[in-house]
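Quick one:
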Amino acid sequence: MKIGIRKITAGLLAAASMLVTFMAFAPNKVLADGPAALYQTHVQNVGWQDSVWNGETAGTEGSGLRMEAVKILIANDPELGVRYKAHVENQGWDTDWFYDGATAGTVGAGLRIEALQIELTGNDAANYDIYYSLHVQNLGWLGWACNGQVAGTTGCALRVEAIKIVVLPKGSEAPATDSTLPACPSDVVHVSYSSHVQDIGWTWFVGDGATSGSTGAGRRLEGIRIEVSGAEDIGIRYRTHIQNIGWDPEWRYNGEVSGTEGQGLRLEAIQIELTGADSANYDVWYRSHVENYGWLGWAKNGEYSGTSSCGYRMEAVEIRVLPKGAEPGSTAGAFVSTPLFTDAMDVMAQNYTSPTPYLILINKSTFTVAIYRNDNGHWYRIDSFGCTIGAPGHDTIEGVFHVQGRTYYFDSYGVRCFYATGFCGDYMIHSTLYNKLPRPTSPCDSRIGQALSHGCVRVELANAEWIYNNIPGGTTVVVYH
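Output:
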C-alpha cells in the first residue's frame, strides 16, 4: 500500500511540476473550460521546448530534428489523467506506460521516437476522447489517432518530428486535417508472398520483409505469388525474368503465379508495382538474393531487382510495403547486368568450400595454379601462375584434397626441390628442379607449362615459397583437367 501511495504522490508532483512549467512559459494563455492536454517535447539539438496545449504543435517541422522524449498531462479535470508509451529507435515499444507528466522516450541517448500510444485514465475517461497526430520524417503530418491507437511508424526507421494533442468530448469527430495518410501507415498495408523453390516446391506464405526462398543452399527460385491487403483500394502486380524465356510478357496480379513450376527454370530478376488509388501513399520495396552475389540492394515500384545476362539464379526474395518516403535499407546494386565472375576458373572456384580463407585450383589442361581468398562468401583470385604437371604414366592425381604437411626441401633422382607443400600423400606443390651438386641453388630444369614431373606440381621458386609460407594447413586444393 505504501508503494501505491508513493506512486500516486510522484505522479501528482510530476503533474503539478509540468503545470507550473506551462504557466511559466505561457503566462498569457487561459485554459479552456473543459479538460486540456498539456505537453512538452525534447528535441534533438534543442532540448526541452516550452509546453503547449490542446492542438498546438510541439516539436519542429522542416528542420530535420528528431523528437526524443515527451511529457503529457491533463489540466482542468482532477478526475482525468493520461498515460502513454513510445516506440524508440533500437529499443522498440516501452514495456511500461508513463503517467501524467513522466518522461517517455530518452534524453541524451540520441535516439528518435518513431511512434506513440496515448490513452486517458481516471473516472472521467469515459466522457472524453484524446486525439493525437504526429509529424513524421519524409511523410509530414499523419492522420489523427485516438484513445491508444498507434500513431507513427514502426519498422521504417523514420523519426517523429512534432506532435499535436487535443482532448474532446466523447464521440467528437477528429480535428480537421489535410493529411491523406492514416495515423500509422506502416500498420495499414501488408504484403505476403510465396515462392516455388527447386527440390522443395511452393513454400508457406510469409510477409512484410520476411525471407522467402533459401540462402546458402544453392537452390533456385522458379516461381512467385504476391498479395497485398489492408488499404481500401490497393493491389499489386509483378513479373519475372525467367531462364531461357526472358521477361514474362504478362504482368501477374494479386496471387497469380509468375515464373514456372516443374520446368527446372530459374528466376533471374523481378519487377513489382502497387496498383489502385491508395498506392499513391505507399512504396513497394523488394530485394533479391542472387547466386554469387548474395543480397542485392533494395529496388522499388517497378524497378529491376536481380540480374540479367549473367545466368545467375535468384535464390530468395524479401518484400515490404512502406509509406511514401520510407526506405528499408541500402538501394545500391539492386540490379546487376554484368557477371561477377567471367573467367571459367573463377566461376568454378565458387562451387567449392575451404576450412581456411584460401582455396587453390590447379587446371591441368592450361597448366595453371590459381590462389583464391574468401571475401564475403566469394572466392576472389589473388594470384595465378603457370605450372608443370605429371608426365604420361606419372599423371598428377585429380580430385579435391587438402594441404597436409610441408618441407623446406627434398632430394630426388640427384636433384633438389624447394618449398614443398603436400596435398595428397606424396603429391606436392614445389619449386622447379635445382642441382644438388655442386651448388644446390643452381637451376637444373626450370621448364613450366609442360607434363614432365613424376606427379607433383612444379612452380617457380618464388611461387612455391609464397604457398609454403602463406597457405594454412587444411586449405582445399582442387586438381582437375
